[in-house]
Design a protein that fits this description.
This protein is an alpha+beta fold and 323 residues long. It has two domains: 184 residues, no CATH class; 77 residues, Alpha-Beta Plaits. The chain contains eleven helices and four strands. The chain has a four-stranded antiparallel beta sheet with strand order 2-3-1-4, with helices on one face. Helix 3 runs parallel beside helix 8. The longest helix has 43 residues. The chain is globular, with a radius of gyration of 26 Å.
């Protein structure tokens, strides 16, 4: 594997045309190219695994729960399920057809790589739906709605984590929100109101109501998958004892810290000098401990907290405590 990567790295260096002063490629350049190639390969494998698991989870939600009871979801998935229930056209045919406009739109709005991944993910979902059999899990309507939505939400969420979507509604929502200066949430809500109204008219009010439960279960599961298991909190601390607070966060909390310069906007006797502002990211479970430690150092510290959906990099990683 390393030999293959080394050869690919050699080609990568040659393609980039970055020789040194002697016209040759240094060991550093080769190592850098190898590292970049390895990171890209690992990322692509990870994305492939996430999308594959997502496809099978969504297919299980469809065939193991929703299709038997004609329950639908929101978005492009809901449109596909509704048409399938009304016309008996197989879902594995409808899902690619309904999503074709969204794939094209995704190419324009997001980019080529996203559109390619999305096309492959949707095609993979159609193949699994058409070739893999899943057992009927239950006939209880409430369980069908809740767990069908859950597995569908897991599938969509893992696909998004892998850089693709198997429901193109949000691509349309992004496009329309930019065009009409409204929020993505408003667009998605309007689309889903139309879909569930159609379900109530063509199927039944009861199915429409159960379908709303399916949608809520799917959307909450999707949020959980995308935002992560832990809830992160970004904390901004303004205090005259900023260095002591910085040291406490590093050594007592075991977290990374960023310090940036600020200027007082209000102070006694016109004191508007510079002040260090401390910023860190912690988990929700550590919030109480942080507040307690800050109180010990400066009870008058000004602390601002905001929810952080996800993190990347070393800032959130625990630093080793020194004993």
């Amino acid at each position: 594997m390393n030999t293959i990567c080394a050869r690919l790295a050699e080609r990568f260096v040659l393609k980039k045309r970055i020789p040194n002063d002697n016209g040759k490629y240094s060991r550093f350049q080769r190592a850098k190219a190898f590292r970049e190639l390895r990171i890209t390969a690992v990322r692509q494998v990870k994305d492939f695994i996430l999308i594959t698991i997502g496809i099978f989870s969504a297919a299980f939600g469809f065939k193991g729960f929703l299709l038997t009871n004609h329950f639908i979801d929101g978005g492009a998935t809901g449109i596909s399920l509704l048409i399938s229930a009304l016309t008996e056209i197989p879902l594995y045919v409808l899902i690619p057809l309904i999503n074709i406009p969204f794939i094209i739109l995704g190419y324009r709005v997001v980019g080529k790589a996203f559109a390619i991944k999305t096309a492959l993910a949707i095609s993979g979902l159609a193949i699994v739906l058409g070739t893999v059999d899943f057992p009927d899990i239950t006939q209880d309507n409430l369980l069908v709605a809740a767990f069908g939505g859950f597995f569908l939400g897991v599938g969509i969420g893992l696909s998004v984590r892998g850089g693709a979507v198997i429901d193109g509604t949000e691509v349309l929502a992004i496009y329309l929100s930019k065009k009409f200066s409204t929020t993505i949430g408003d667009i998605v809500t309007v689309i889903n109101v139309v879909i569930f109204s159609a379900a109530a008219y063509f199927l039944s009010i009861e199915i429409a109501l159960y379908s709303m439960i399916t949608y809520l279960a799917a959307s909450k599961t999707l949020d959980f998958i995308i935002e992560g298991i832990e809830e992160y909190i970004g904390v901004t601390i303004i205090s005259t004892h900023s260095d002591a607070i910085r040291q406490m966060i590093i050594h007592e909390m075991g977290r990374g810290v960023t310090v940036y310069k600020g200027k007082r906007g209000f102070g006694r006797h016109g004191d508007t000098g510079e002040i260090d502002i401390v910023y860190s990211v912690i988990t929700r479970l550590e919030l109480n401990k942080l507040n307690t430690e800050i109180e010990k150092i400066d009870s008058n510290a000004f602390v601002v907290m905001n929810s952080v959906k996800d993190t990347k990099g070393g800032m959130i990683k625990k630093r080793a405590h020194k004993h």
